[in-house]
Structure formats: C-alpha cells, structure tokens
Amino acid sequence: MAIIDITFPAKILRVLGLPESSPRRTQLKVLKKLLRKARFTEFGQQYRFDEILLSKHPGKKFQELVPTYNYNKIYKDWWHKTLEGVPDVCWPGKIKFYALSSGTSEAASKYIPVTNDLLRGNKVTMYKQLFSLRNYEDIPVKSIGKGWLTLGGSTELQWDSVGFYAGDLSGITQKKSPIWFQAFYKPGKKIAKQKDWNKKLADIVEKAPQWDIGFIAGVPAWVLMCMEMIIKRYNLNTIHDIWPNLAFYVHGGVHFEPYKQSFDKVLAKPLTYIDTYLASEGFLAYQNEQNACSMKLNIGEHIFFEFVPFDEKNFDSDGEMVDEPETLMIHEVEEGKDYALLISTSAGSWRYLIGDTVKFTNTDKCEIVITGRTKHYLSLVGEHLSVDNMNKAIQLVSEELHISIPEFTVTGVPHGNFFAHHWYLACNDNVNSEQLRYLIDEKLKELNDDYAVERKSALKDVFLDILSEEDFLTFMRIKGKMGGQHKFPRVLKGKMLQDWQTFLEQTKKPVN
C-alpha cells in the first residue's frame, strides 16, 4: 500500500494543477500566462506579445515572431541590460537574483536570471513531487519528518553594487525558503554558507552524529564522498550505523546507475532513489512514481517547452543550433526520438536553448529521460554516440563484471587517417582493462546501429585507461569545480580536453 493513504481536497489539487488537462491545452495556458505577464517589457513590445495573445494559434505565432536563443545571444541582446540595473527588460521589474552557472565544460560563469515568479513556480513543483510520495510503497513514513541534508553550493551570495545578488541556485532558494523548512534543513545556515567545499564536507562529517537524516539531496559523486568520509571518520560499517532512518536520496543532473553499486557498498538497506531535473533556469521535471525510469515534465506551472529534433539538420558538428531550427510543441513530439529543449520561463528566458537533450518515454503522460547535452556527444564520423548510450553501456558492463565505475569521460582522437574513441574510467575494483574495453565496445555496438557501422569503417579503434576516482576529483578541484552543482563532463572537447591531457601528463597517468 502507499506510504501516505490520503485523499487530498479538490481545492489543494487545483492549486497545484493536479490533475492536468491535455498537454497541448496545459502548455498553451502556461504560454499565455507568461506572455500576459511580460507583454509590457522591452522584449514583449519588440516581439509583439499582444499580437501573439490575440492570435487564434498563439503557439505557432509565438514561434513565428520570436527568435530562438542560446545563452550568448540572449545575454548579448537582452540580459546584459538587467545586470546594469535596467528594469522591465525580459520580465517585469528589476532582476534581484542571478544563479551562477558554468555547466560542465565552460569556464566563464553564466548569469541566469532568477525571479520571485520562477522561485514560486519551483516551489509549487517541489510540492507536487512531495505529494507524489503518496504513491510510493513500503517506505517508512517517519523518514519524511527527519532531517533533510542538502549537499549544495554555498548559500553565501555575492552582492553587486548595481543592486543584485549572485550565487548558486541552492543559495538563492535557501534564502527564499519558507520558515517551516528550516526545522528540517541540514547542514544548517552556518555550514551551508561555507564556500570552501573541503571545509564544508569536514564540518558536515563533524556534525553528522548530531543529526537524524531521512533525506539526502545532491550530485551522486559528492554525496558518495561525504558518506564515505563519515564512515571512515567514525569507523562504521555503513552510513545507516549513524543515520538509521535514512530512506530517500534525491538526485539529479547525471545518470545515477553508474554510481549505484558504489552506493550499495555504504548502505545497510536500500534507499528510495528519486530523480529530479532542477536546473538554474527552472524546475523542469521530476520522478513521480517509485522505481520509475523516467520523469514527468513540469508542463503546468511556469515553463513553456519546445523541442528541437537533435539531428544534423538543426545542429552542427559542434552541437551548435542553427539560426532557424525546426521546433515542435508538446503535442507534436514522438516517443523514442532525441530532442534539444527550448524553454520560456517566468524569469525572462525566451525560446532559450538550455543545452540538454531528452527523449520521451510516454507522450501521453509527458514522461522523459535526459539523454545528454547538445555539445556532449561524439559523432566524428557519423557514429552519433549519445551520453545515454555511454551510460547504458557502462551500466551493463558494470553489472556483468560486478564492478563499480562511478566516473567516466570519453573523447574523440585522430587515429592515422581515421579516428578512435578514448575512454577514461574511474574504477577501484580489480578488472582487466582489455576486457573492459572490449565489453564497452560490444555493448555500444548493440545499443547504437550507427556506432556499429562506423566501427567497421572510419572509427578504427577504442582506447581505454583506468584511473582512480580521486584522479577525477583532483582534476575538478584544480578547475575550481568543487561543490554540489558541478559534474564531470561525460565528453571532453576543446579547452577542457587540453587541460585534462595536461593534468594526466603532469601526474604521469597513461595517455595514449
């Protein structure tokens, strides 16, 4: 039976937008709400939001009149004005908060606008996910009321004299969180403000015996490191020796399966894993059923979604979107195809390429899986290898060999007159590298027909080096990418690849 057997009043369900009507109708309602709110802004006036609202087909009119944007373009044309204190640019009023985001490969920080309207929409989405726990089974109810440990970035925000705060989204969210949440929130305000990630982890380890944790949220690599540090510090067998009520782990941003075996080693009993899709630009999707392999797209609140088929017609070889891509609305997508996401939000992001690719597993329920990044895929010779393919291959090989591979990255390299792929894996288990290389190659051939074809043609070989997990973490420290929001890129290109190769040479790690 469900852990929370409650029938909620219709009024509460209506406020949360549950249940939703047809996806098309729901999304058009969201679009009209966004357009009405922003029609008197500079952006809304230039792109004739009033005309779109009067149109019989506002979705198509919106696509016709408003151009698509990536970060560099929307910053250059619009968002730079908001950083100078100009109000009513892309969203009503002055922007008082910016989430600093560098993604997984770019060095320069991006300033993503965060408004009260966006935070309100994120909060409602969080409540929807909490309400979905009523559908979960065999989970101790008492764990919900215990401490919620969030391993995020520093909540200490930077103040700019122009009149805005900037920092991690987790810091902004914490600053605006309701009073009731403080009773559950760990590690507490003092530790959460700590900017030195190593010091923050050390403080959490020190305080761990004083807490009764039921929930943990954060990126898998950092959460695992924290639990391992606690186990070592107090000479425990598992994390449940100190937190017996730990039952939930909320994760997002990366595929979890490569980490599962490593998590199992530090647990005395299974956790319920809950996937989320929370980006600096908004709370896009969440897992709403126990053991689900997909997430429900958040179509009814504060985000209007469009979908660009992720193919050579719409993206170049570097993953850059063309100027006038083919764009589809929610009712036009098909299951099993890769799409890049465009979002329009209540923070003044308009037809904005967020950089992720998704695949629909159920169009009626609007359920998706994240398949990768537009710039994090390999197609040197037409092999079209996605991060989703890589994750699945690693998962299958890990299960077959009973090993843990918590981190990996791949790059394309010249090989004579042709090309090859070079894998770098973190694995502390005893494994034969040649067997591992062979199995990954074979799994990819099974998962991806294009890859199988090119392995007989221009993709001549596969190289593989086994490193320690500490090597990956050390490189992230050197790059200044320590902390809850940072993930190791699954595909290395450009400057990041050069820095990685330099790091391996300096530490005398094998480089083919």
UniProtKB/TrEMBL annotation:
Pfam family, one: GH3_M
Domain GH3 C-terminal span(s) in chain numbering: 389-493
Protein name: GH3 auxin-responsive promoter family protein
Recorded superkingdom: Bacteria
Coiled-coil portions: none
Signal peptide: none
Occurrences of domain GH3 middle (ranges): 301-363
